[in-house]
Structures are given as structure tokens and as C-alpha cells.
Amino acid sequence: MSLLSIEHLSLSIGDTKILHDVSIDVCPGEIVAITGESGSGKSLTALAVMALLPRGSVTDGHIFLENTDILRTSERDLCRMRGCSMGMVFQEPMTALNPVQTIGDQVAETIIIHEKTSKLDANIRATAMLRRVGLNVNPSRYPHELSGGQRQRVVIAMAIALRPKLLIADEPTTALDVTTQATILELLKDLVTEFDMGLLIITHDLAVVAEIANKIAVMQEGHIVEAAATYDLLHNMRHPYTKSLFNAATHKVILPEYIPAPPLLSVESVTRTYNLPRVTVFGSRPTFQALAGVSFHISHGERVGLVGESGCGKSTLTRAILGLEEVQEGQILLDGQPVFTKKSLNLPARRKMQVVFQDPYSSFNPRHRVDRLIAEPLHVLNNSIVGKYREKAVSKALEDVGLTPEDGTKYIHEFSGGQRQRIAIARALIIEPELIIFDEAVSALDVSIRAQVLDLIAGLCRKRQLAYLFISHDLSVVRTITDRVMVMQSGKIVEQGDTEQVFSNPQHAYTQKLIAAAPKLPEVTYNVEVI
Questions:
Q1: What 3-state DSSP class applies to 376?
Q2: Helix 509-517, helix 178-195: angle, nearest 10
């Protein structure tokens, strides 16, 4: 018998129809995945199950959790069910947690709200639940003191504190590195088995789906276009949309041949150490070494990848290269010029490189039009481009990334995630830098949009001698978009070399661990269609 039964669910917000006749069943001890692109209706389906829909939503159909029809249950009863009969793990744990409340108190709060128990007993049970999800830290710590993977464990502990019958996980591993992702997925599978829960997981990552789910439902524009057991669906795809998703997930970029050239960026024995808070009043301050003698180079036109777990030093290294953070030892040279001179930023060198961030929306001023946003880097040039020359430069940058000059008159909120990333790349390209740093630039994109952005980057490499440092936790992306890859662990480069050679025959134990942890899609033999 089904634990959760979604029957012919339709949803409209105003005059816009979002979901169309959606039907999904989840049994106890079963993992069901909903996959599809952004805007397909995955998250709204999950929110409908939790009865957390936006105001003005109109629904039709039924959502049964055992014998209770959620769509016809009062808000008072729904409040009793949330956290007790059903729990939810949200995509971004930092926004789901209260920054001024300890993690122990936040897990205990769920217990106190639903059960008549003392605060002491709730705290003891909360600590035990944190241990159960593999988080062996002091419950008195705050969310900002934890890593992304640790925060995700706290959210899971909150969701399962009362052992609900149904757990919904909305993109629970999107922003996590491969080893942390593998650990979280294994944790979810263990919890389903131990508590005999039903798990409904929402994700756009087909490799994750293939590893964890018993059944898959593929959603497109609010419709379930295909649903079957995982093995059957992956080896006998029937719908063109499912095939196109798989094709995008396994997409391989064709880079132009790299021609050896002189070094452009040289990082020589760079060390960066931070002071930590004192443990005792009169004791010396402990230190943390984020970078420990890092050395490498990137040549003109070379495409280099950087991979490693969260906390390995990738972000610190990025800030140092960009001149946003001074290092204590070593030096960073760009085209032979130091990024820092006499403890101040060397602007002539800094102008030769740009960065594309992970979240383009937060890196733009939403009150400015796109043409002004793209033209921002022109202000740092010694001879700033103005008037018609600036308009021409903006139009060319937009066309280079597959957009039109007319898009410059719009605001950033009018674009999709993939289009915003194209605009971010256009802003980076407008001053024709010699080096671009892509910091997790495609990690939050759907597989089809990700494939388009990667093809765009490859196309730009054919038009110009573009060198870049591509930082990502997605090993499959790094493998297809780089000539050479570096593996970072605990502030050190532990392995580097030709990309295909490192992935095919890793020498360092840490590299082997990363590659083994990365989720993989099964091989298929049919001809797939391009989106």
C-alpha cells in the first residue's frame, strides 16, 4: 500500500497553470525521484505535499498521506503533521536554519513543538539525532560555524527528529562537493531503510537519481512525461525529453587544440594563514593554514581545472589570485607582473583578469539594466570607453555569448539562470581579459543549460586565445572543459597533470577517493536527441 499517493494533481497560480494531472506514488521504504529542468514543477509538487503553496494557488486532485487528504486538511492539523508525519529537507540549508540559534536548539525545537517533553529531554534527543546523521560536533555551535555538508546534516536531523513516515528532499546535494554528496546520499538511503520511511527526492542531477532512486518520474512543464523503475527507465527511455536530459547530462565539450605557450599566471610557493580565536584568555592565538606552499602556472590560452572538497583552500586561492587577499609568503605573477606590489593591489595587472561567480544574480545590481551591468569593467580601464564605442562594445559582448543587443535594455530579473550566466560571462569578456576564473560557474544550472554554457565557453576559446581557471566540484564537467587539472587537499596541490590522464589513472589516494565518490550514469546504446 502506498504511503504517499498524489492523484491527478493540478495547480494554478492566478491564470497560469503550473501542474497538469500529476500522479506519483511513494511506498514505505521506497525512494522516488522527480527530475527535470528548472521551472518544470518539481519543487511546487513537493511544496504541495507539504501544503506550503504560495497564496492564490488553486489545486485540484488529491494528495493522500496514508488516509489523510492533505489538500482537504485544516491548517491546524497540517501544522501537527509537518515535522511529525512528514518532513522536508530544503535546497539551501543556510537559509533554512536560524543564524542566531544553536543547531542543538533548532533540532530540539521540532521535538518540543510536537511532544510534551522537557527541554532537557529534547536537547538529549536532539544531540542523539545529530550523532545519528554523522554530525559529531558540539550542539551549541551556530550554523555559520559549520561547512555546507554539516549544515545539510543539521537540516536532515531537524526533518527526521520525530521519525516521520515521509521525507521530502529538495535538491539536497546541489552545492556539495562529491565526497560530501556521496556521504549525504548514503545517509538518506540508510535512514530510509532504518526508519522504513518513504523518500521523495527532487533533483536535476541524473547521476544522483541513478544511484539513489528506486523509481524515477521525469517532469516537463508541469507534466509527468515518463515514470518507471530506475533501471527500466535509464535503459529503455521512451520520451524524447528524457533522452535529451540524458544526452545533456553526458554531454562532452569539444575544445580547440591547446597550443603550448609561455606562462600567463604563475603562483609560486603561496602560503596564507589565518589567526583563530583564543581558546584561553592568556593563551596564544591558534592559526589555520589555508594555503601551504601552493605552486602552479597557467599558460596563455590554457584551460586548467581545480577540484577539491569544501574547505580545501580553493576559495582562498581564488581571492589571492584576484588580488582580494594578500598572502604571507610566495608571490603571484600575471604576465610577469606581481598582483600585489608593496602590499597594495597592482591594478594594471589586475585588469588583465576577470571572474565569473557561481550565482550570477547575486553578483549583479538588480536596479541597473543589463547594458550598464556589462559595461561596469570598462570603468577600470585607463582610457575608459564612452558613448557609441561603449554601446558597440556591450553589443559585441552580448552577441559573443549568444544574446542580442536588445537584451541590454532589460533588467537581470527578466532572464533565466542560464541567460544570467551568459550575461556574467559577457561582463567578464568586455575588457578582453587574458585570464578568466570560473568559480563554480555551472554548478547550479540544469543539465541542458549547463551543456549550452559549456559549449559557449568552448566556442569562445575558438574565437580568442582565452585562458581560464575552472573551479568546480563536478568532476564530469571539469573532465570535459579543461586541458589540465589540479587536485587540492588541505591547502596543497596534491596532484596535477593532463586532465584525461589524471581521471583515467589517478596517482594520489585523495584523487582516487574523489573520482570514486562521483556519481556516474550507466552506459546506454541508443541514439539520443539534442535539446
A1: helix
A2: 50
* Coil/strand/helix, residue 350: helix
Handedness of CA 37, 40, 45, 48 (dihedral sign): positive
Q: What are the Cα distances from residue 120, in Å, to 104, 129, 139, 140, 417? A: 11, 14, 13, 14, 45
How do beta strands 4-13 and 16-26 pair? antiparallel
In the numeric block, the cell 602552479 is attached to 296
The strands making up 86-89's β-sheet, listed across from edge to edge, are 86-89, 166-170, 198-202, 31-35, 215-220, 223-229
Q: What is the pLDDT of residues 156-198, one digit of tens each?
A: 999 999 999 999 998 888 767 788 888 888 999 999 999 999 9
Distance separating alpha carbons of residues 114 and 85, to the nearest angstrom: 10
Query: Are 361 and 376 contacting, i.e. CB atoms less than 8 angstroms apart?
Result: no
Task: Give the cell for residue 283.
Answer: 593563551
What three-state secondary structure class fits 32?
strand
Instruction: Quote the CA–CA distance of 43 and 35 in Å, as a whole number.
Output: 10
Task: State how far the Cα of 246 lies from the Cα of 248, in Å rounded to an integer.
Answer: 5
d(CA 251, CA 454): 9
Phi, psi of 276 (to 5 degrees): -105, 165
Please tell me what DSSP assigns to residue 82. B
Q: How confident is the model at residue 107 (pLDDT cuts 50, 70, 90)?
A: very high
Whole-Å CA distances, 309 to 27, 189, 193, 321:
35, 22, 28, 19
| C-beta of residue 230 within 8 angstroms of C-beta of residue 216 | yes
Beta strand residue intervals within 29-83, DSSP E: 31-35, 57-65, 68-69
Averaged pLDDT for residues 4-15: 94
What's the pTM? 0.81
Question: What average pLDDT is seen over the chain?
Answer: 89
By C-alpha distance, which of 322, 273, 262 is closest to 297? 262
- Residue 109: helix, strand or coil by DSSP? helix
Closest CA to 87 of 165, 35, 189: 165
